Amino acid sequence: MRRTPLIGMLAGVALTLAACGGDGDGNGGGNAGGGLTGRGPITIATGKDRSGNMQKMIDAWNAAHPQEKVRVIELPDEPNDQRQQMIQNATTRSDAYTVLNLDVVWTAEFAANRWLVELPEDKLDLKALLPATVPTGQYRGRLYAMPLNSDAGLLYYRTDLLKKAGVAGPPKTWAEMWAACDKVRALPEGRNVDCFLTEVGKTEGLTVSTAEAVASAGGTIVDASGKPAVTSPQARAGVEFLVGAMKDGRMPRAALTLDGEGGRRHFQAGKLLFHRQWPYQYELANADDGSSKVAGKFAVAPIPGQNGPGTANLGGHNYAISAFAKNKATALDFIRYMADAKQQKADSLATGKAPTVAALYDDPEMVKKFPFLPTLKTAIETAKPRPAAVRYGDVTAAIQGAVYDALGGRATSDKALADLQTRLAQLATS
């Protein structure tokens, strides 16, 4: 997610889409920890370990547990592809994957299909975590995944260019952002700088961007009763923010094909004024090895909204145990090891990933290295998660398809949202 590690805006309410999932005992349910037996080698299925720090942490585990070594299985970069490979593994009841590094929004789908074992809450320190992160690992009041990394969207902005243009600080509203952009573009240094970028390619990132834009306009994709609400004026305003940015040239056409890493490279090359991105970018963009042209020239703020500060999407990754894996007792111990505050701090310092342990947001060493941590903590605490949906793949595909058509000019915002309302209603009753 960062990719987090993204539908709707609703905090803690599961879509009626989730209501058809199973419950009770079985491969994915039953008594907490009841099936957590067996010791020996295990695997972890995860996205790319670009920093190498995950492997470093696992090497330390392996050195201390020579009979219970962990092997990393790296999955593709794109979250949709990661999810598909994990589902394929589960539907064949394969024991190839032991620990699953899940996007927070997949918990309901995997738990409802009994692809996960329930985790024993009395053996995991949930009280140490940011409260907002705990529900991301739960399904129907039971814990199926341990929150390991959190995430919330942030606005990265070029302090040097804003200062040169006489702009006092980061924008709090969309209108302020466009006004600042116009001033920067009037400078010789700003002529070839794109104004704004958020993920709008036809990937999970577009679901995130849509969710944030709709919430930041005061709307929601799913209302409190679990019914689709994308035809509201507020939801339309959020989508129109994205469509208008593309139409007016404030967001480059290249955004339609850029993923999160492509956007990061665009920002680090000095070609972007405002960038909605996850916390992991901070460390990379501040690198002093020549890989970033904006090191020391940017800062981080809350994302802007229609009438004031916006509402970020809650992302992150959680560790779960496959219902079909061997050596589940080892897997639980490994998850406890990775979730420990000491390990989370070391990982955050090395990679810039947001921890889930609340105390780390006030840790002096952490705050010194990442001055934006107070901003991030507030963003996580006020962020809105995507609804838990058993048929999440269908839901996010519907959002991506509708909004991508509007962005590309193949449908008006009203037509795209009307079609999306119909499709989400169908999914909610099927």
From TrEMBL:
Keywords, alphabetical: Signal, Transport
Segments passing through the bilayer: none
Pfam families assigned: SBP_bac_1
InterPro entries: Bact_solute-bd_prot1, SBP
Signal sequence coordinates: 1-21
PROSITE patterns: PROKAR_LIPOPROTEIN
Cited CDD domains: PBP2_TMBP (cd14750)
Family to which this protein belongs: Belongs to the bacterial solute-binding protein 1 family.
Protein name, UniProt field: ABC transporter substrate-binding protein
